[in-house]
Amino acid sequence: MSGVTVEELFDLKETIAAELFTGVTYPWEVLPKIHDFIIALGEELPEDVYERRGEYIWIARSAEVAQTACLNGPLIVDREAQIRHCAFVRGNAIVGKGAVVGNSTELKNVILFDKVQVPHYNYVGDSVLGFKSHMGAGSITSNVKSDKTPVTVKGEEICLETGLKKMGAMLGDHVEVGCNSVLNPGTVIGKNTNIYPVSCVRGVIGANCIYKDAEHIVPKQTAKY
């Protein structure tokens, strides 16, 4: 297996956007489809559970949204999510159930699975973040290459052309990204992997690992008691 497929990265039971991934092999394939998917799904959401606010914005009635947050559609904020003070959603975003979008965090063209946390000064663009993944304070996704060419996903044994000029990061379920880290365009991180703080990450990082730096990626050890 390549380590970068939807099946390997995500539990699709943990997102309202599961249908978007139907028939998709690689998660970045959904990025151009997010806009239209949100509009179609939003029109079907029950009014007793989701409140429509402005054009193409649906907010669960149980969600908490700060008055200082800036919300642009298309957008769905699922049940019990939190959009905190001065968060900025530029549009084309699904914020999963119980997820946290924090102070000065910016979202653009993203899927946040349930219980994702991007709580402090994060930029997340053209990305998919799996169930219970967490980005530490100041960590960001970089979604455009400096030479503006299409993004390629590269691993030890793979090199996949995405055809996308903009692609940030694909984080598997339960990924932990340390504070002030940068995830370069085309980064894919497998389930249950931890990224050290102040890391500069690129390419494919396997599941169940600890990323210390590009030369030191070690498997997690099972604790013995």
Helix and strand succession? HHEEEEEEEEEEEEEEEEEEEEEEEEE
Number of domains: 1
User: Could you name the ranges where pLDDT drops below 50 across 5 or more consecutive residues?
Assistant: none
> Which architecture would the CATH scheme give at its second level?
3 Solenoid
In one word, what is the shape?
globular
SSE-based structural type = mainly beta
Count of strand segments: 25
Helical amount: under 10%
Sheet with the most strands, sense and barrel status: 11 strands, mixed
Strand fraction:
25-35%
Radius of gyration: 17 Å
Q: If helices are DSSP runs of H or I spanning 4 or more residues, what is the number of helices?
A: 2
User: How confident overall, as mean pLDDT?
Assistant: 96
Q: Which homologous superfamily in CATH is the superfamily?
A: Hexapeptide repeat proteins
Give the CATH topology: UDP N-Acetylglucosamine Acyltransferase, domain 1
- Give the class-level CATH name: Mainly Beta
Q: Distance N terminus to C terminus?
A: 33 Å
Task: Characterise this structure.
The protein is mainly beta and 225 residues long. The chain has one domain: 3 Solenoid (UDP N-Acetylglucosamine Acyltransferase, domain 1). It contains two helices and 25 strands. Strand 1 and strand 2 (57-60) form a beta hairpin. The chain is globular, with a radius of gyration of 17 Å.
